[in-house]
Amino acid sequence: MARRGDTIELAVLGLLHEGPMHGYELRKRLNLMLGWGRVLSYGSLYPALKKMLRANLITEVVATTTPTTRRPRIVYEVTEAGNAEFNRLMSEVGPTAWEDGNFDIRFAFFSSTDMEIRLRVLEGRRSRLQERLARVQAELERTQAEVNRYAAELQRHGVESVEREVRWLSDLIQAERGGDVAPEATPSAATPSAASPTARTPGTTGAPAAND
Amino acid sequence: MARRGDTIELAVLGLLHEGPMHGYELRKRLNLMLGWGRVLSYGSLYPALKKMLRANLITEVVATTTPTTRRPRIVYEVTEAGNAEFNRLMSEVGPTAWEDGNFDIRFAFFSSTDMEIRLRVLEGRRSRLQERLARVQAELERTQAEVNRYAAELQRHGVESVEREVRWLSDLIQAERGGDVAPEATPSAATPSAASPTARTPGTTGAPAAND
DNA sequence: GTTAGCATGTAAGGAGTTACATGATTTT
DNA sequence: AAAATCATGTAACTCCTTACATGCTAAC
């Protein structure tokens, strides 16, 4: 069960999956990867690493590998159990995989999963956003008149952004289906590409989209 | 000093500014306004209201105003001190006004401020985003090769979203400067721009930047 | 020689969530 | 008559940030 807060754990496992690393570097990579405003603090990274150590998901090795006598850095490496856990977390489909804080990190490590999972997560995410869109638009029809200019503009802009992301997801889904593994290379993905903004994803997905 | 966590307070003051309301309704309006994924819980709203009561920013009135004998709802109203506090918070320019979690709510209540403040906040927000963009792009030049396809696509999409938001802000700034108070009416603003200040929702959005 | 960046941690506390508890009213 | 939604709260807990504490190393 991957509940809230396992975000850091998954991210760490994913990064270490690509090779051993020490805390400081881990943090930098993490901030670049899913930061966009959020900055992970040491006060949250180091305790998380300690916890993972205790759970045997990673091991620490003091590395004195440097030129003169650099301060010994503690290099972390995934254990087999850690890799198993990583795979387990990545294979999970369901709200935990496509909810706001969780989707990004899964997506970033998509290379380590197979297409089936990728599709389910992408479709789940898309359904989630479409639901939201529907709910907000329904709400707007009832409230519309009373909102002020700026609040309305904010709403409009928000809706547009979500619609945009839906299109992005649709393009990615198509690319996956088309066997085109590279998502960015296709110019089609960047430009128009179809997406049904409103239409709920057909039964295809196993995503009933449980809510709040 | 409006530090973190005054978000709810400002939002509540802003909503009550438009008229008295009870908790349940407050929560719904709030979620619609800046929800986009986040759902404010009662466990955070009611204690916040209690705190504001103690601080004399609002008063509560038990309203038995309903048809038969509906459960008495507690209607909140801003006090003079509350209005003063609202104005103080809205007049603050600086990071607190344009940082991620704070910008949206200020923007929604922009009608209650004057153009000078609005411009400063919009410009501050834009600078912030541009800084991030610059930092990320600089970072990407150094790291580029090693990232995998999906992580790279996430980055690309994130950068694009932020660039979109910058354009949106620029349009709004121009509209303010042009004396055109209505931001949405202008077809120029509606068509090309649009990013999402609010809709951080999409996993992609963020910007890693802001490391210490 | 001093600033900036590398590197690792801990303690206290804030902001908000989940889960619990309760009950009235409206809609189906 | 059941289900949904209105309506108000509290207690425990979680995740994360801030601020503190320490010291090395590279560059200017």
How many domains is the backbone of chain A divided into? 2
Order of helices and strands of chain A: HEHHEEHHHHHH
Q: Count the beta strands of chain A.
A: 3
N- to C-terminal separation of chain A? 17 Å
Q: What count of helical segments of chain A does DSSP give? A: 9
Mean pLDDT of chain A: 81
What spatial order of strands do you see in the largest sheet of chain A?
1-3-2
Structural class by helix and strand composition of chain A: mainly alpha
Classify the beta-strand content of chain A into a percent band.
5-15%
Spans of chain A with pLDDT under 50 lasting ≥5 residues? 185-212
**Percent helix among the residues of chain A?**
55-70%
Q: How big is the Rg of chain A?
A: 20 Å
Shape of chain A: globular
Keywords (chains A, B): Coiled coil
Domain Transcription regulator PadR N-terminal (chains A, B): 12-87
Protein name (chains A, B): PadR family transcriptional regulator
InterPro entries (chains A, B): Metal_resp_DNA-bind_regulator (IPR052509), Tscrpt_reg_PadR_N (IPR005149), WH-like_DNA-bd_sf (IPR036388), WH_DNA-bd_sf (IPR036390)
